[in-house]
Design brief:
elongated; 14 strands; about 230 residues
Length: about 230
């Protein structure tokens, strides 16, 4: 395990995801050009460049140990905890499961992390619209990337990246058959979005609506004893 930087740099100048350098470079180049036209425009360019860096920041996280823990895949607010039928493509059945939704604003870290350790059993992309993801009914047809992770004990956890009102690209770096570890980076959504986690039956919920979640650190739920010991029924 790599040592986490606990200095001021972790908070003031955190590292950014590789996907962000292209945008930072574009904004920096535009700022240089604008500086030849107007000081005000150059200042706006500086602000946007700093924001791009801020948006793509990718700080280290300390993931709690425990094969029975399901951690948050995203930074943000737990906007909804309710029963919902998972998308049919995820292979999770047609019965309602507990779904925890984490809403990410444009100011949150947008790097997504795996909620559990296991194998990617399903990965499915669904194109769609771009409406406000905080409005559950209106966002049912939003663009999304669906992924099901199966633990060594056979428990299946669904993770859905949902594009938001201003999000225009969902990135998922894993493929079916890949192994992921709890807290490992697996994806990124650009500019405002939501992550949904579908929990298996009898998992003990440990968060409430309105709570702030931290990707890779906040524990959303604890799997049941049967799910930890490998009862696949």
């Amino acid at each position: 395990m790599s040592k986490v930087d606990l200095s001021w740099k972790r908070y003031v100048l955190p590292p950014i995801h590789n996907e962000g350098w292209r945008f930072v470079s574009i904004m920096f180049g535009a700022t240089v050009l604008l500086s030849a036209i107007s000081g005000v425009l150059a200042l706006i360019g500086v602000v946007l460049t700093v924001y791009c860096y801020f948006f793509f920041r990718d700080p280290e996280r300390v993931t709690p140990k425990g094969a029975d823990l399901v951690v948050s895949p995203a930074d943000g607010i737990v906007s909804s905890v309710q029963a919902a039928v998972p998308p049919p493509e995820m292979g999770l059945g047609d019965k309602p499961m507990t779904r925890v939704c984490v809403f990410m604003s444009v100011f949150n870290v947008h790097v997504n992390r795996s909620p559990v350790t296991g194998k990617v059993a399903v990965k499915h992309y669904r194109p769609g619209a771009f409406v406000n993801v905080s409005l559950d009914k209106e966002s049912e047809n939003n663009e999304r990337m669906e992924m099901t992770v199966e633990t060594d004990a056979g428990a299946k956890i669904g993770v859905v990246q949902v594009a938001g009102l201003v999000a225009r690209r969902i990135l998922n770096f894993k493929e079916e058959g890949d192994t992921v570890r709890t807290g490992e980076r697996f994806g990124l959504i650009r500019f405002g979005s939501r992550l949904d986690v579908y929990l298996p039956e009898n998992a003990s919920l440990l968060v409430e609506e309105g709570q702030t979640a931290v990707a890779g650190e906040t524990v959303l739920a604890r799997l049941s004893e049967k799910q930890r010991k490998g009862d696949k029924k």
